[in-house]
Amino acid sequence: MAITRRTDFAIRFMYELAQLPPGATLSVRDLCELADVPESFGTSLVPFLVDADLVQADGYRDHLLSLALPADRIPIATIIEACEPEFSLAACSKHPHVCSRSPHCGVHTMWVGLDSLVLRYLEHVTLADVAHNQPAPPAECVRILSECLDAPSGRATVAGS
Asked: 37, 57, 62, 154: least CB-packed within 10 angstroms?
């Protein structure tokens, strides 16, 4: 499943705000232009980002926006989960009841494991990493991947399966 436009645009907004020096702000219009987001969509995204405590808006000064936290304290997973609480690569990962095969299906187990791996990786990639074009997996992500692989067989393992 691809991420939604809402998530893509939210990450673009956050990316552009992370490029600003501390204390600087951007208007919604300027942010939409920089992020290449249609203004009609961008203006509807701002209240959501403010409510999710990801962005601060100064409504008294032409809706000037800034990050609510330093970029190095905002994991990309937090942005994705705020936009898509049900994020998953396959429907059966989050909703196993949609498929009668889920209880005994190796494909279901694979999707659950991959979802977990993707989100665990993105918990360790911060907005600052992305803003500096350095989202390479930190050592912690290599450790996570190692934990997800069963060394003797090379097979992925899933907690709780």
From this structure: 154
